[in-house]
Write a structure and sequence with these properties.
206 residues, 28% helix, 9 strands
């Protein structure tokens, strides 16, 4: 009579706990490391974003100045780069048109009317266009392409605009300067009290 072989039943094979995934200790370590990396990276990212916004805002002001000069020469007439403080815009049709639209550019037409050439730049979130004191300096370009303060007789040299952010502490300002009524430069400055009145010697190398 044939014998019947019975195979012994073996218990199911189990995998070590570590092979199934992360242990609790490993998970805690991963979370801790991720937290440290975030703590280091976030401030640096914030600095980068704010710095880029400052540069964008400064470039918009510089572009307005260059456009005002270009149109004055092209049309052989007077244009005005506006201040955000109405009382510093001088007098006449250009001053009236400017109001408080800091950074806007108007042209004086032959019939005495004005036309808007460049709208006032709107700073990105967190960026402030300084309006204390004289604010943005109002400048009028002649057909020769030289800029003067309204009612002044000599080409302007000095600070034009001060843009800043309180979200960062280093290079938190962009200071825009003009030299002899034509050369425009922008430099990064670290300051809580405003841009220097005179252009720093290393401004154009920044």
């Amino acid at each position: 009579m044939p014998s019947i072989l019975h195979s012994a039943t073996r218990p199911p094979r189990t995998l070590p706990v570590a092979a199934l995934g992360l242990t609790l200790i490993e998970l805690v370590v991963v979370i801790a490391v991720a937290g440290i990396l975030l703590a280091v990276a976030v401030p640096g990212f914030r600095q980068l974003v704010t710095a880029n916004r400052l540069t964008t805002a400064a470039n918009a002001i510089v572009e307005s100045l260059l456009q005002a000069r270009l149109e004055a020469v092209r049309r052989n007439t007077t244009t005005q780069f506006c201040s955000n403080v109405a009382t510093t815009n001088g007098s006449g049709a250009l001053a009236t048109a400017c109001g408080t639209a800091g950074g806007a550019v108007y042209v004086l037409n032959a019939d005495g009317t004005t036309t808007l050439l460049v709208s006032a730049p709107q700073p990105p979130p967190g960026i402030v266009l300084n309006s204390s004191g004289t604010g943005v300096v109002a400048l009028r370009y002649t057909g020769q392409g030289l800029a003067r303060r309204p009612n002044a007789t000599v080409p302007y040299t000095g600070l034009v605009a001060d843009l800043y952010s309180t979200a960062i502490s280093r290079n938190n300002r962009r200071c825009i300067y003009m030299t002899t009524g034509s050369i425009v430069s922008s430099c990064a400055v670290t300051s809580t009290s405003g841009c220097p009145t005179n252009e720093p010697t290393d401004c154009r190398s920044q």
